[in-house]
Known about the structure:
The protein has one helix at 2-48. It is an all-alpha fold. It has one domain. The longest helix is centred in the middle third of the chain and has 47 residues, at 2-48.
Amino acid sequence: MNTVKIISVFxxxxxxxxxxxxxxxxxxxxxxxxxxxxSKIDLISKVKG
Length: 49
């Protein structure tokens, strides 16, 4: 019984974190997603050498 409660709380936390972060991520992709993606690719290539 106790593990069911822990699992349900964990699922709720994941759900709410997704609900909070999803609009921010979609807004980022609409405004400057390609710029952020290019900077990530540059960073990866610099790390690899």
